[in-house]
């Protein structure tokens, strides 16, 4: 079994028990690990490391593609094994350690991590831990359900541990397209023009001498938990589909809309699922995470091709998709996140980006990360890569949260991840605000009229009117701008 | 004289007095005009339009490359001729009209305007007014001291008015490189790999039938007003040069640093001028505005090539540079702003971006546009194009303003144009904060220690300490976050 997957003779003697491999990870190291959106994580090694750290205290700087499954981040945080973490996370235990100031979290645009390492902005990994379905005779590491930052980690780390993942089939070979931008200067264009172009190799070419350990893994990816679309997310999807129909009718968008990007999570998933009952055909995706909805649209013939950097599917889809990968190989591709999220390609392709907001303000500045401006949820992820450079940048959220105690539309965003310059369309279940070509005062009018829950509309109008009476291009009353958040913290209700 | 410059026979009969040309501009039109950083504006037509509007009220939507000279914006605003203005301005009269809500100002990333028009996000110009030194026999409009958005305006407008500028020599022919990205879908890479690559044509190819008027212009560009470096800007420059020396010594930057971008204005100009006394050689620039310092560095042999989209020079340099353009043609090129500011190229080239902040906060969020979060100064300009996609994103400002009444470092930026994700280095005369790879709490420590004026250091430390005691990834006390701005508005002093 093992030799079937480890076809490179030169490294077959590197197979070792996970307890032995873990000892290669030393205090103070920068560890680069595969994993994006809970897919394609290395698992046996980091989980063993968390156990090991209980009795052998150590601190590492831990870099991945994005969030991890199997409570890996939580267990490492609980073992106090993390000094630094980048570029994204979504674990409740780690989140607590970040917000308490124990773990230094560097919340990065997901396209940037590898280029920052490559060009000496941040430290390169001392060791890489890479999840693979196989190592080929030619010396390619064949990745699993995500590509993330793995190729860059292998290229830049001094040592590489490979986890051979026996829970995923070798038929994944051929689904990845591994390409790295050249080191500057004299970097050329990235030669990708269509979403289904293949520009790289099927795996990561590795110097066999770098492989210091191979570990067999039998722990599966944590399946994505998707809540089904509810009435509100359905209405948000309908608003968006209606908008797209109008754009096509007016000749402003092509019939298939152009490549779609969709953020992670239930709302974004529900929005994309809304395309199923639409009249749109030949849809294409150029996104980070391929979720259930992607495969649903492919299966129903609505979508012709999807490019991503990870497969984050629920159990219902995992079997269908992973087990029948051969049927999908001409319809999907998994790329490194520096390619899936690359500003050069996002601008060139003209992507329609749909991401989720925690809150936005009356001028359209979006907070996607911090509760009440202070407490980190997950991170900015790829939303900034897409929003800044997309053809149309859309943010969606429900107009209220916590049964109405919180308005998602506030006088001023308590943390700004996306400035008004990068936000074209806002959608809640109340309606859609088309902000293109509008000045701040006009944006406020459209946002308050279309997106705000009726319970908060009068108060926002009152704030806006009083601010306008004082004046300014972006009228605000700074002494009141956060009064809603302040009241929430004090009383539990805005 | 005129026929010398109007070499295209088919349009020679379109020469007319400016008073006649002005009547082609109708109420409600979208007018696209050349001009960037007070260079290469059309002048006779807009100034005549401002006169005309006094007796013939009209409102236009006015789009340029960036800011204009000759008080054009102010005179149009005073005549109440502007309903909308984009994507940038720097005129005190227009600023007042914007802040009062009379003129709707759309403050845009300067790389985006043409792509938004091309792909139907905002209205295309009904009429374009283009400043030119000549129209060639082959039908090329040869631009003057800026390229800006002129090529796109000519391509997309129904009608074109050309202003033949007799104040600028025809030797400018050959300094421009006009290239437009293809309309999507199926857009290819922009084939630029080195800063001195030429990828386009020497002028704007125009359908002669579109040219509805040619006007002779004898009003010169308004010369840039540059204040000489003062002690503080000199110290800021020194901090930056020292940082660059360290980066090169550590092998993190190449010996010539890579392509430099520098924002407009006296501080940025002083910073670049600081390179003169440094040991750096073979410097290259890939920027928007080529200012005095650019030519000074070329003249002194420090800089080998500079790519920009406008020539904004003071009278001292204007004569030397403009009159001797033949000597500079192999050392500079002027490109459309959608190429000079293109995210694809900024990321590919690995640009070091140096821009000016109005204020920044303890976590490194930068406000470059709004005084006290409400009143627009000029606009975001190209700073967002560069900061998001640059290799190193640097912001500079003096630590205090108005004789110490204002601290440029505040608890929370009152308006966010550049989020902490896009800000790597901050410099004041107090020192330099290297924020690369740091988490927010670490960023705050480095910023307060290095960049803050001593008069405000204790108060910022106090705010930060109390915020940290409450907790959060980005600790803030929302009820106090704007107390400094609030006090400033009430008492004139932070």
TrEMBL record, chains A, B:
InterPro entries: AcetylCoA_hyd_C, AcetylCoA_hyd_C_sf, ActCoA_hydro, ActCoA_hydro_N, NagB/RpiA_transferase-like, Succinate_CoA_transferase. Residues 320-463 form the Acetyl-CoA hydrolase/transferase C-terminal domain. Residues 15-216 form the Acetyl-CoA hydrolase/transferase N-terminal domain. Pfam families: AcetylCoA_hyd_C, AcetylCoA_hydro. The keyword Transmembrane does not apply. GO terms for biological process: acetate metabolic process; acetyl-CoA metabolic process. It comes from Acinetobacter puyangensis. The keyword Transferase applies. GO terms for molecular function: acetate CoA-transferase activity; acetyl-CoA hydrolase activity. This is Succinyl-CoA:acetate CoA-transferase. NCBIfam families: YgfH_subfam.
């Amino acid at each position: 079994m093992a030799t079937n997957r480890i076809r490179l003779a030169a490294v077959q003697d590197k197979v070792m028990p996970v307890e032995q491999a873990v000892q290669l990870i030393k205090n103070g190291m920068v560890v680069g690990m595969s994993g994006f959106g809970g897919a394609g994580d290395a698992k046996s090694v980091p989980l063993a490391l968390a156990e090991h750290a209980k009795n052998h205290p150590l601190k590492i700087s831990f870099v991945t593609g994005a969030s991890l499954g199997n409570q890996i981040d939580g267990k490492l945080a609980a073992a106090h094994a993390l000094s630094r973490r980048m570029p994204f996370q979504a674990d409740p235990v780690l989140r607590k350690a970040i917000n308490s100031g124990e773990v230094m979290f560097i919340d990065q645009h997901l396209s940037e991590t590898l280029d920052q390492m490559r060009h000496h902005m941040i430290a390169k990994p001392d060791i890489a831990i890479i999840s693979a379905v196989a190592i080929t005779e030619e010396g390619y590491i064949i990745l699993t359900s995500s590509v993330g930052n793995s190729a860059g980690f292998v290229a830049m780390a001094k040592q590489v541990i490979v986890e051979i993942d026996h829970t995923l089939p070798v038929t994944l070979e051929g689904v990845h397209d591994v390409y790295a931008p050249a080191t500057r200067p004299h970097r050329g264009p990235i030669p990708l023009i269509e979403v289904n172009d293949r520009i790289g190799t099927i795996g990561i070419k590795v110097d066999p001498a770098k492989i210091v350990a191979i570990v067999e893994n039998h722990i599966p990816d944590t399946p994505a938990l998707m809540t089904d679309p509810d009435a509100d997310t359905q209405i948000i999807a309908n608003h968006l589909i209606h908008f797209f129909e109008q754009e096509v009718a007016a000749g402003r968008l092509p019939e298939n809309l152009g490549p779609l990007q969709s953020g992670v999570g239930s709302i974004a998933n529900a929005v994309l699922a809304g395309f199923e009952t639409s009249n749109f055909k030949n849809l294409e995706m150029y996104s980070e995470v391929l979720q259930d909805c992607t495969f649903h649209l492919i299966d129903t013939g609505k979508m012709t091709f999807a490019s991503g950097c990870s497969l984050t599917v629920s159990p219902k889809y995992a079997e269908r998709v992973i087990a029948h990968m051969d049927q999908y190989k001409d319809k999907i591709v998994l790329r490194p996140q520096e390619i899936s999220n690359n500003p050069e390609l996002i601008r060139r392709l003209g992507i329609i980006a749909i991401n989720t907001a925690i809150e936005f303000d009356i001028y359209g500045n979006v907070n996607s990360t911090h509760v009440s401006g202070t407490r980190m949820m997950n991170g900015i992820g790829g939303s900034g890569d897409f929003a800044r450079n997309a053809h149309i940048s859309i943010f969606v959220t429900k107009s209220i949260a916590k049964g109405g105690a919180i308005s998602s539309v506030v006088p001023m965003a308590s943390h700004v991840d996306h400035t008004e310059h990068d936000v074209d369309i806002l959608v809640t279940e109340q309606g859609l605000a088309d902000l293109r070509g509008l000045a701040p005062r006009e944006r406020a009018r459209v946002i308050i009229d279309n997106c705000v829950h009726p319970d908060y509309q009068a108060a926002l109008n009152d704030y806006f009117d009083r601010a306008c009476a004082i004046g300014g291009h972006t009228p605000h009353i700074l002494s009141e701008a956060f009064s809603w958040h302040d009241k929430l913290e004090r009383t539990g209700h805005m």
